[in-house]
Amino acid sequence: MSRMYLAIVNRGKAEVVIKYARSVGIEEGTVLLGEGTVRSKVLEPLGLNQTQKEIVMLPVTKEQDQLLHKEISKKLKFDQRNKGIAFSIPFKRWTKESTSFSLEEEDFSSSLIMTIVEKGKGREIIKAARKAKARGGTMIHGRGAGVPQDYYFPIQVEPQKDTVLIVVQKDKKDEVKNSIEEMINSETDGVVFTLPVVATSGIFEDRIDEKISKIKGGRN
User: Fold this and answer.
1) Is 100 contained in some domain?
2) Structurally, how many domains does the chain consist of?
3) In a domain, 148, yes or no
4) Is the pLDDT of residue 215 over 50?
5) What is the domain extent for residue 143?
6) Which side of the chain, N or C, has fewer Cβ within a 10 Å radius?
7) Closest by CA position to 26, among listed 4, 59, 57, 3
8) How far, in Å, CA of 84 to CA of 17, rounded?
9) Which residues fall within 8 angstroms of residue 177, CB to CB, at 6 or more apart?
10) Mean pLDDT to the nearest integer, 146-168
């Protein structure tokens, strides 16, 4: 079973992820530059709520994935707001001789909604997602390096396009996806699709669960 581990971190912090990944035997990977959004009633009207991000993509085993979620969350303080998030998607290796490939079935409670639209429309996608109660997203601009050739992963960063990544709980997926599709149909051209997410760290719901666990632990 293989996974793709993605960490979205503040600019300059990708090196921390890569260094730890190498220490546990992960040699392949890609770093893309992106732009995140911060929810702020003060900054948003001024257009100052964008933050510079690095997106680290690493092909990993399930065991390596578990180590990354545990250790990178600690190193980069994902339990604090605006420090970063990570999530993992299941998939298969494939070869040039393969005639087909597919995502493997695995239990998941979250989904990645990916949207590819004309350059400059990425922020509108995030606004549409927020109308459906999504908490934000990350945009990748322009052309970026690819993932290893023997891995299938549907991020192809094209010139003159914005790629928007939004992670939501599975039960919110359809509502958020429908809101994005309505925006695309009325204002621009684009494509939107979803992928299962089998592990997360730093997501809002993760921080809430961790706080609850700490409270319960303090009572024992």
Assistant:
1) no
2) 1
3) yes
4) no
5) 2-92+106-219
6) C
7) 59
8) 11
9) 113, 192, 194
10) 66
Structure tokens given for 177: 């996806």
Phi, psi (degrees; rounded to nearest 5) at 146: -90, 180
State how far Cα 128 lies from the chain centre.
Answer: 17
164: CATH: 3.30.70.120
pTM: 0.79
The predicted pLDDT at position 51 comes to: 81
If you search the block for the tokens 């009572």, which residue do you land on?
Answer: 219
- Order of strands, edge to edge, in the sheet holding 190-197? 190-197, 110-118, 161-169, 138-141, 30-37, 50-61, 2-10, 84-91, 199-201
Query: Which of 12-21, 45-54, 116-125, 176-185 is least confident?
Result: 45-54
| pLDDT per position as a tens digit, 91-111 | 765 544 554 445 555 578 899
Distance, in Å, from the CA atom of 197 to the CA atom of 167, rounded to the nearest integer, reads 8
Q: Assess contact for 106 and 198: CB atoms under 8 A.
A: yes
pLDDT confidence of residue 39: 57
For residue 17, CA distances in Å to 142, 145, 155, 187, 211 come to 23, 17, 20, 37, 24
